[in-house]
Amino acid sequence: MSINSRDYMSTNGHSHANSNGTSFGNGHKNSPFSVPNAGELIDYKRFYSIIKRHKKLIFFFVIIATGISYYLTYYYLKPVYKSEGTIVISPAQKQGSSSTNGELGDLISSTYGIGAGSSLAKEIEILRSRRLSREVAQQVMEMKRKPNGSLYPILWKNYPVDSTMISSKRLVGKIRGGLEIEQDKAEPEVIKISYESYSPYEANRLVNMVINAYSDLSTKERRAMAHSAVEFLGSEKQRVKSRLNEAETNLSNFMNKEKVVKLDTQTDELVKTLSDLESQRQALKVKLVAINSAIDNYQKQIASIRPGLSEQYSDAIAPTISGYQYRLADLETEKLLLVSKHPYLKRNPNSAPELKNINDQITVLKDEIKKLTGNLLKQSDKYIGFLGSTDGNIASELIDLHKKLLQLKIEKSQEEAQSKVLDERLASYKTAFDKVPANMIQLARLKRKVSMNEQLYTTISRQASDMALWEQTQSGLGQVVDYGNLPTKPVKPQKELIVFLSFILGFLFPIGFLLIKESLNTHINSVEKLRKRNLPVLSVIPDMKPIIKKTFSKRQKVDIHNKKVSSYLLTLLNTLSPVAESFRRLQSNVVYSQPDDVLNTILVTSSNKEEGKTTLLTNFAVALAEAGKKVLIIDCDFRRPGVHSVFGLPSTPGIMEILFDGLRPEEVIQHTVVPEIFVLSSGRIPPNPASINRSVKLRELINSLKEDYDHVLIDTPPYGLITDAAPLLKITDGVLLVVKFGQTREADLDHTIENLLRTRANIVGTAMMAFNHKKSTDYYFNNEYYRHGYKSYKSYHNKYKEKVKA
């Protein structure tokens, strides 16, 4: 069935009009102008076809990729071993100590961090610190060699090529860079420490060194805190002891000199009150010394992280809560004096309404001070957040230090207020004390100093003993669960996986390359591409060159009846070949494509030059002659005539001689070696071929010859290049479009079809020349049809020849 312009438009569903008013189809899924649907983007049949067609190339790439990866993996890449150890850090757990009993003990604990847990983030930073890496590097430098005598690989400048030892500084960097510290997701306190090395022994040793170094550093840090407190208490103990000895000596000398042993009741009570006040004042001085020492320590730590930060908020405390603190100090002093006058109130404080009232006021003031302190800490934390970009563990540590510093400064302010109130009370009692007789005053003062220093010495001595014991019992926070294992198998490279991936890549890479190559190929290299033009594919003509080479030894001409016939006329020269059979199929499809219309005049053209239209036309004529048809071939390709050469005929006389020299057609038409085929050659080359094809005389000549022949075949120039044949389209019954396998470009073919449809040409169909099923990109199943067909025909033909010989 042929396709004219109206049929083509109806097949595509709709049409678009061009500027001249003609229409051409667009929109069908197989149209040359269509876009593939989403489902057509992955074509599994084509994928399989590529694998089948290029299996040797793909197999070659797979072998090469797998072989190279195998060699590099097993003979070039060095195995890497990994050792892993586990420790548990419990920073939130408070560790108790007897040193934390009493006000001074609480102060020492809060000041020096005694008994408190460290933050988990801080401990992890210690594990990752340069300080720890230096400790490990120093140990490695001291050992240098493994038990077998070889140098540790980490000490090589470039293992295993250059065994020059690296510097200790670079070694620290390599240890820090290779050390992996990971927290367990389910249990964050479980820390995994791992290291990778070319040597399993080295990996194991480094992990164990890190675990031990961390344990030592953590223990030293905690003992250092306790040692600072011990040193402070020791110095205070010596100072108080010296003062106590001096006070006792002065009291003894005075009593011996003045012969005074006992105070009267009033003086004794006054002395006792003054002694309590002085003891309280001395205790405050000790606490202030400890607080100032701790404040200086924390300010140095903050300054190392954020220089100048502590000064930016240090003045925010006094104006905020100093009033409350002064009133609280006054109440604490009143409570002290009341209990001093009535010692039984220590055992039963609720028995006196006055003391209960004082305690209630103290509770209220403490709550208010606590509330103000909390607000101040929150504001300061927000303030720190705007000081700059600190992230992770450093920001957390900075905030913790900041909170401790503020709390100490608030406590210092409280103690200073208490000291001020005590000084005022002491001044008033000293005034009353001055009225007592001189010898009684002196005796009372000496006894008061002895009593005060005894109490203070006892307190400090007990605290110093507890702290010394605490220092000796301190250990690191990390508890070792597992030391590093000695690996027996390398973790890198994963040889089997690498080889397998190389095998996959060796398979996918050539396929991907071939897919891209074929997607970029714009030539008609498959029957499917030709069928997508929505034109009947009337026949697929195999490549003639192999048969010609085998049959005629590359000869271009064959002698038949004294005429040099082209070896490409295989339908005549090799009637039992697949080529001849494909032209017979073309003859059958053309003749029976339109049962209601007789295709008397058929024009043969192509998209470009050298696409085999003349070869197809002449062989097609032989097939028609075999069917008993009388055929006339008219060569209207006045630029490059070739029909006469195929049949071994002269080019003149021809059409030009009829049109211009007055010769009659019967004088010019030539007989061929095939009795039923006649040729009207082009004649001499005209100066203007286009005007010849447009001439009325030529059309009248062709119309006059139709009556004498069953079929008139017209050879024309390639319509995709030259439009010489356009005037002849109106007098022909159908157009046969020739496509050459692997040579005709899709764009040229689409352009030719479009132009033919615009002229309302009746396209009978297409025929593919020089088809090579081995190079075709047809789907495997379709391509296999041609492959199987050629083999079957050859087998069938061989049996026929055997029967003929028999």
Short précis:
Helix 4 (102-112) runs parallel beside helix 9 (265-305) and helix 12 packs antiparallel against helix 13 (392-433). 58% of the residues lie in helices and 11% in strands.
Sequence-ordered SSE layout with sheet pairings:
Blueprint: H1 5-12, E1 15-17, E2 23-25, H2 44-53, H3 55-76, E3 81-89, H4 102-112, H5 120-128, H6 130-143, E4 156-158, E5 162-165, H7 168-178, E6 180-183, E7 190-197, H8 200-258, H9 265-305, H10 309-313, H11 318-341, H12 353-385, H13 392-433, H14 438-473, E8 478-482, H15 495-520, H16 527-531, E9 537-542, H17 545-552, E10 557-560, E11 563-566, H18 570-573, H19 578-591, E12 601-606, H20 613-626, E13 631-635, H21 643-646, H22 655-661, H23 665-668, E14 670-671, E15 677-680, H24 689-694, H25 696-705, E16 711-715, E17 734-740, H26 746-758, E18 763-771, H27 780-805
Parallel strand pairs: 9-18, 12-16, 12-17, 13-15, 13-16, 17-18
Antiparallel strand pairs: 1-2, 3-7, 3-8, 4-5, 6-7, 10-11, 14-15
Helix pairs in contact: 3-15, 4-9, 6-7, 6-8, 8-14, 9-11, 9-13, 9-14, 11-12, 11-13, 12-13, 19-20
